[in-house]
Amino acid sequence: IALKPGHLEARFNLAALLGGQGQTQEAIEQFRKLLELNPKDDEARRALAGLEGSIQPPNVTIDRKAPDSR
Fold this sequence. Notes:
The protein has about 70 residues and is mostly helical. About 55% of the residues lie in helices and about 0% in strands. Helix 1 runs antiparallel to helix 2 and helix 2 (about 25-35) runs antiparallel to helix 3 (about 40-55). The longest helix has 14 residues, at about 25-35. The radius of gyration is 18 Å and the shape is elongated. It starts with 7 loop residues before the first helix and ends in a 16-residue tail after the last helix.
């Protein structure tokens, strides 16, 4: 990738490898770069969507009380 940033297959393989190793954010970045270079890559788009869907938002507790119905 460092020598040939436009090598699409190498970038896809790197992104897939990162995703498989649990480095989700790094994989997402690589798939996004790949899609900048080749927006028509449906396989990369599906892989990116799958990774983005696997990210869980941090646990946030909101203390909401129901409105007073008097």
